[in-house]
Write a structure and sequence with these properties.
elongated, about 800 residues, five-stranded mixed sheet, alpha+beta
């Protein structure tokens, strides 16, 4: 295609630095396998899916310039664009140049070397009617015959000498309509009904329904004055009389007059600012981040103790969220934010009908709070949804971890917020955080605002909750998230978040108070022997006979409990706690329950007689066989629970007669999606080495730019059966043989995903004709089919290769 060849030519003429900027802003185009030439890179850059990923990254003036260019119809001159935007000179002209440079960095608009501006075809399709204008005249007249063009020229009084060909007549008509003065002159001669019709259509846009014909007898519903306009190309009707007559963009612009200009808001909106020092920002960021880190640890600890149940429709419902919040002493916002970020970080995963911690959680729980917080913060930064959004557009409650489709606009809302805050003057913050909403809308107008009221209120609240925003300014956390410096982010987390507390103040009122975030060991110990009451900057546990008995039931001895608590206590253990442990241990195990369905025995006949006569235990069906032996008609666990409910402290025995230790292993889930079954294709595909661009090594756009500029401008596509360049892998050859609709660059990426076990996104057309976008992993080639795990359906699916019409990296 012509636009693709001009893009490849322009890319090939860039220096390494400028090409690296394009690769940096459009990383999806450089995903594995990396492009082998600037021609292949140009093909990837002009994919509709790739352009759709780039659009949400653009600021408002960039989109306004692109829309104006789409309305003019590329190729067009910069002067024409500047005139439409009223940016021919001064500061506006400089802002226009800056916007064009930003669009060029995204390879969406570029100069063609002939003084014209070109744009990606998929970008033009982003607007049905840019600026409320229809297509240019040349596009609307594509199917017009040479005689019809001659008739239009004659009606306008334009002569072409010599009579010329259809192309010459079309060029002459386009030239005539390119001059607003000529159009206005022609309209001035029109009948009054025609002038009224044209002036109304010029401002109303192309969507107004109407039915016109171009030649012949007027239809029964032809509007007054339409014939005159149709005969002169001021309105154009489809040859098959399908749909309304359309007004060329040149005609609409001329009728709008020289005083009309396209919107161009080059300067962001102003906000109220207040002075703030870095120390004040650090202090607030430290406080809120520490509070969130402690709350997140408590939420995940509650999930570890009892894995949350999933709804049949998917996700964690309101009842489970409330249970977790009560156990962790955290509100719904903190619970949702923790669950979503932990799931994205791999700390939680679906496990049948529950969501359980993974083994990665155990490693995370053993870390210090700064490392724990950094992991969740980085997960939030690229989370493709709004985690704290609790209700949908219809005000219905949304479950957490509900499997919402990926939302690039949600990611861009976060990026736009940090971009807005990063551009505030040094030493200044907004007076009210919600004032950043209009700034975010300017920096990322296509982002998801997730709010019916104040724009971007939800993402602003999340940023404040995490300490990314503090006192209306960007904190150290936010600065390094925005720059993508993970190492510096970790350093700032260690600087601003205190290490975990390893000691507790244990009081005579049978409470243990931990200031700050308790260490994993301390929290585990206190959770095992006491009940947590509050969380936050200080966490409180309370000891009780039931909590101490729980530790004894788990196999702990009174001496172990006392020693462990003494080791973490800030001072000597208070006497009431020692008495509580001793008294609870003295009554613990005085009655033993043996399985039989079941047998109770003990060393105290009076106690056994008391149990047999206890009226509230009558439902157990206790019967005394001997002074120290009872039998029960109820199972062991039911008997055990009933005695404990009445204040007794029995212990259960195993079949061997030893005390049963009531210590359960926390439930752990595997990865959310099963690991790939293998990367070798059934059809004989070879396994390719993982690419460095998307693996553990960092992506280096400068190095890739150097390789592309050194390669031939276009790489020949394989044609092995015609003696051309062979395919790089057997998998490529198999995919190309069956997926006939895929260009070779898409074939390469799909084959690479199969060979390396990576996920891929495809555009798939089902047998019904429905077109869907699916993210697939666990790919296995079985020509003419592709077996894969479908993330949309959360199940194994089989796809026909010939129905895959497009490929995009995930």
């Amino acid at each position: 295609m012509k636009s693709r060849s001009t893009l490849a030519t322009w890319l090939d003429g860039l220096d390494g630095c400028l090409l690296a900027r394009v690769l940096e802003t459009r990383r999806d185009a450089a995903s594995p396998p990396e492009p082998r030439s600037v021609g292949e890179l140009a093909d990837r850059l002009q994919r509709p899916g790739s352009v759709a990923l780039a659009l949400p990254q653009l600021a408002l003036p960039h989109l306004q310039v692109a829309e104006a260019l789409a309305a003019l119809g590329a190729p067009t001159s910069r002067d024409a664009l500047a005139g439409l935007l009223e940016a021919a000179d001064g500061e506006a002209a400089r802002e226009l140049d800056a916007a064009l440079e930003a669009l060029a960095d995204h390879a969406l608009v570029w100069p063609d070397g002939a003084g014209k501006l070109r744009m990606a075809g998929a970008l033009r399709q982003a607007w049905d009617a840019p600026l409320g204008l229809d297509a240019p005249l040349e596009e609307l007249l594509t199917g017009t015959t040479s005689d019809e063009l001659r008739g239009m020229l004659a009606a306008l009084g334009v002569s072409v000498k010599p009579p010329g060909s259809k192309a010459q007549r079309l060029a002459a008509l386009v030239e005539h309509h390119s001059d607003p003065e000529r159009i206005l002159s022609a309209v001035a001669k029109a009948p009054a009904a025609t002038r009224k019709l044209l002036e109304g259509r010029a401002g109303a846009g192309p969507a107004r329904p109407a039915r016109f014909i171009m030649f012949g007898s007027p239809g029964p519903d032809l509007e007054p004055g339409a014939r005159w306009a149709l005969e002169r190309g001021l309105l154009v009707q489809d040859r098959h009389r399908f749909g309304p007559a359309r007004m060329p963009a040149e005609v609409a612009l001329a009728l709008r007059g020289p005083g009309w200009h396209a919107p161009f808001q080059a300067v962001p909106p102003s906000v109220g600012l207040a002075p703030v020092t870095p120390r004040e920002v650090d202090r607030e960021a430290s406080a809120v981040a520490s509070t969130f880190a402690a709350g997140a640890a408590s939420v995940l600890s509650a999930c570890s103790a009892t894995a949350p149940a999933r709804l049949k429709s998917g996700g964690i419902g309101a009842r489970e969220l409330a249970r977790i919040g009560k156990a962790a002493q955290a509100d719904d916002t903190v619970v949702r934010l923790t669950l979503e970020t932990a799931y994205a970080a791999g700390l939680l995963a679906r496990d049948c009908d529950r969501v359980a911690p993974t083994e990665a959680y155990d490693a995370w729980a053993a870390q210090e709070p700064p490392e724990q917080f950094a992991a969740l913060l980085q997960a939030w930064w690229n989370l493709p949804l709004t985690p704290t959004q609790a209700r949908d557009e219809d005000n219905k409650a949304l479950p957490a971890l509900g499997g919402a489709p990926p939302c690039n606009g949600c990611v861009q809302a976060r990026h736009g917020l940090l971009a807005s805050a990063a551009r505030l003057p040094t030493g200044q913050g907004v007076r009210v955080a919600s004032d950043l909403g209009p700034l975010v809308a300017w920096h990322r107008p296509l982002a998801d605002s997730s709010s019916d009221g104040t724009p971007f209120a939800t993402v602003i609240q999340e940023a404040e909750l995490l300490g990314v925003l503090a006192r209306g300014a960007l904190s150290a956390f936010g600065i390094h998230l925005w720059t993508g410096d993970a190492e510096r982010l970790g350093i700032e987390c260690r600087r601003l978040l205190p290490s975990a507390a390893a000691t507790a103040r244990i009081g005579a009122d049978l409470t243990a108070v931990v200031t700050g975030t308790p260490s994993a060991r301390l929290a585990s110990l206190l959770d095992s022997v006491a009940d947590r009451e509050t969380n936050g900057t200080a966490s409180v546990w309370r000891f009780s006979p039931g909590s101490v008995r729980r530790a004894l039931d788990a196999g702990r001895t009174p001496e172990d409990i006392t020693a462990d608590l003494a080791a973490v206590a800030a001072g000597p253990l208070p006497q009431p706690l020692s008495y509580l442990i001793t008294d609870t241990a003295r009554s613990h195990g005085r009655v033993r329950i043996a399985p039989a369905a079941c047998v109770l025995h003990g060393d105290e006949p009076a106690l056994l007689a008391e149990l047999a006569a206890h009226r509230k235990l009558a439902k157990l069906g206790l019967r005394q066989l001997a002074p120290t032996v009872l039998i029960s008609r109820s199972p062991l666990d039911a008997t055990l629970a009933a005695l404990r409910a009445e204040g007794y402290a029995p212990v259960a025995e195993t079949n061997e007669g030893t005390v049963r230790i009531e210590k359960t292993r926390p439930r752990r889930a595997t990865a959310a999606v099963p690991a790939p079954r293998g990367s070798r294709a059934r059809g004989g595909g070879r396994t390719a080495a993982p690419s460095m661009a998307n693996g553990s090594a960092a992506f280096d756009p400068s190095a890739l730019a150097t390789r592309l500029l050194a390669a031939p401008a276009t790489a020949p596509e394989p044609a092995p059966f015609e003696g051309g360049v062979p395919f790089a892998t057997d998998t490529e050859e198999i995919v190309a043989g069956w997926a006939k609709r895929l260009p070779y660059t898409d074939v390469r990426q799909l084959a690479h995903a199969i060979d390396t076990g990576q996920a891929i996104t495809v555009e798939y057309v089902a047998a019904s004709g429905n077109r869907t976008v699916r993210t697939l992993s666990r790919l296995e080639l079985d020509p003419p089919y592709l077996e894969a795990w479908c993330h949309l359906r959360e199940d194994e699916r089989v796809f026909t290769l010939s129905r895959i019409h497009g490929v995009m990296p995930t």
